[in-house]
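Chain A, query sequence.
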Amino acid sequence: MQYLIVTGSSEQDGVCHGFLQEILRGAADGGAQAGVLDPEGIGRCKACNEGSGACRTDHRCAFGKDGFDEAQEMVKASDSLCVITPLSWGEMAEPVKNFLERLRRCENGLSGALAGKPVLVVVHPDEAGSGALAGLEQIDKFCRQTGAVIFDFLCVNRWNNDYQRVTAYSAARSMAYGRKAGGLG
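Chain A, predicted structure.
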C-alpha cells in the first residue's frame, strides 16, 4: 500500500511536523510505504482558457512543469492520503491550498484518480484556535468534489496535542491496514 502525506508546514520543530512523524510511523507500522509531498514551489492555478483548459479536458495541467505533474502522479499512485496543514485566518497553508485547487481542477468528479481514496485530515489552527471549521470545510469540499472519502478529521491545538498524536498514529496505521472509512473493512 502507498500512503501519501501532503504537508504545508516547513517548520521542523512545529506541531504539524510532529504529527507528520506520527503519521509516517503509523503508516509504516501498518505495512504501508509512506511518502511526503511538500507542494512548496508549485504555483497557483492560472485558470487558463477561462478555467476550462487542459485540466478539464485532459485531466492534466497545461503549466504542470513547475512540479505539479510529478505531484499529481504521486497522488494517483497512492492508495491513501493525509493532508496536514497549519491554518491561518481559517485558510490552509498557501502551498497546500494552491496544490489542492489545481489537483481538484484536474481530478474533478467521481471518476478521477481520487475517487474512493481515503483521506486523513489534520489541521492546526493559529494560537487562538480560530478558523478550524473553515479550514476543515475547505478540505471537505475538495474531497467531495474529487470523490475522495474522509477517513477522519483531526483538529490539533495546544490543549489536545498530546492525545491527538496517538489518534493520528492509530488512524494512519488503520488506513495502512486497509480499514475503510465508516467501517472495519
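The longest helix spans residues 161-177. Residues 107 and 146 are 6 Å apart (CA to CA).
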